[in-house]
Amino acid sequence: MDALAALWDGAFGSAFAIWSATLVRATPLLLLGLAVALAFRAGLLNIGAEGQLLMGAVGASAAALSLGTAPRAIVVLAMLAAGATGGALWSGIAAWLKRRFGVLEVISTIMLNFIAAALVSWLVRGPLQEPTRIYPQSSTFSASAHWPFLIPGQRLHLGFAIGVVLALVLWWWFERTAGGFRVRAVGAGARAAASAGGVDVASTVMRVFLVSGAIAGIAGAAEVGGVTWALYEGLSPGYGYTAIAVALLARLDPRWIIATSIFFGALEAGAAAMQRDAQVPAVVVQIVVALVVLGVLAVTALRDKQMAQRLAVDAE
Amino acid sequence: MELLLLLTPFLEASLRTATPLAFAALGELVSERAGVINLGLEGCIIAGCFGALLAAGIGGPAIGFAVGVLSGMAIAAVFAIFVLVLRTDQIIAGTAMTLLALGLTGTLYKVLYGASGAALGTPTVGPWAVPGLSAIPVIGPALFRQSVLTYLLYAAVPTLAWWMHRTGAGLALRAVGERRAAAEAAGIDVPRVRWGAILFAGAFGGLSGATLVLAQVGTFNEGMSAGRGFIAIAIVVLGRWSVVGTAMAALVFGAAFALQYLFQALDVQLPYQLFIAFPYVLTLVLLAVVRGRTAAPLELGLRDGTR
User: Fold this and answer.
1) Per residue in A113-141, pLDDT tens?
2) Residues of B with Cβ-Cβ distance to A119 under 8 angstroms
3) In this structure, how many other beta carbons lie within 10 angstroms of the beta carbon of residue B30?
4) In a domain, A56, yes or no
5) Half-sphere exposure of B33 (CA within 13 A, CB side)
6) Is residue A261 part of a domain?
7) Number of domains in chain A
8) Partner of B250 for a Cys bridge, out of B22, B134, B146, B210, CB 3.0 to 4.6 A?
9) By CA distance, what is B289's nearest residue in A?
10) Which residues in chain B have their CB less than 8 angstroms from residue A111's CB?
């Protein structure tokens, strides 16, 4: 009971908990959830949001450190662009391997997650290490690279606003544009999309993979620009994996991802408080994540079965 | 000359690190030959690691291995329920099982051993030199001064190859993976074969994890499987879905992991992260270079009952 109370307090117990803990943790989950949902909609199992986030963080950090004290608007925009590029570059490797060599993207993106982690580990002890060379991290960014806060006195930052806007844009794009329809068609059945719809499946999948990586990269830029103000090794406590549950629980609907990312953000924030106050390890969140994914799978499967039975009855 | 002196320890380390990879890959091979791709393999490995640690601390290494195997099978059983009973997508269900096992073992480890408490003093299985054979120059100590698990692997490879190609059950397994409908028409109980194959993969995944803890590392870390389950799946592709090929491919990856010891011994000044990343990079490169798709079982990854 103490643990649950600590969980609730840590997530929603105060204005600070909501605006500076829950929503701050929801921000990367929102962006990564969108990245995952976009890919899954096209039938592309991008498990590499974690690595794409890290590479986005690397790109944004490099931009922030090299631009120094340039005007804030320029630095923040450069970090966004560099973050998106870093993420897209990383997902681009998996996209290229899939298109050129038929390498299963689940395996390639997971391998790339480990490679990205090793790369960050090297960067913060090598080229990007702070000048005293004591700590495994980059220098702290200058004030122009600190992303604006949305509410005075709270830690909620620009990244969350970008996420919400992106969610709505993506929803509109899926539902109301030909491009969105093509992506959904490819996800529903690649062969049918190609033969009946004349969709260029390979290029569609390639583009989706790149954009998915770019969005995940923006999540990385938002973490270093809005939260840490430096590049660290343990930047993400597995946000990229939690994002899979965020996207699946929202049934890949971008609007619902806003809600599910806040749910998981609350869980992460609450779990951190729980570990501190009630000594319950925060990895417990991972169990909840997995159970949510399995639960969604089971519910979907049972509904499909019922549907099939009903169709069979109708046919008779 | 110096290189020649390092050859034996390098081969020895390659084989030692290849052993858990080979167990996991052979398990996955059996599952894939029945048409089921099990991305929960990573979960079976980490469950095997944790189960082995827990039980070995209480009852010694033998009990540790038994519980490791059972832990892997438990994860595989849940995966089988999703894939065979609920008929969900194999890849998503497998990924979820991996996440579940990583979360469960991480949480239990912290609850049972405390946030800092590395479970030291785990009984481990040391190498045992085969009399005579281990005296062969260069390769003798590499091949025959290993833990008993490696010898078990030596026995498992030919046995599995024989079973798959020379027995009725092996034929049934391959038939289910290649032409499900034909197998059904021939009176093969497809769900039963797949249950068996998935549980076998879970057992070997668990054995892989137990080997990792009890014969290699000697302790447990959160997420210590470190992607070995996914590398094992790549190993099956590189081995072109054959038993001997899979074992050979596992050896290549054992060497990739062992390379860091060699470079340490040679005192090469390179960032250590390069060696950490190397097996993962190698996986990508080999998957791209070795065109194995044509050898894949035809039913691989297809959702149960979708046609």
Assistant:
1) 999 999 999 999 988 898 888 888 999 99
2) 273, 277
3) 26
4) yes
5) 30
6) no
7) 1
8) B22
9) A101
10) 227, 230-231, 234, 280-281, 283-284
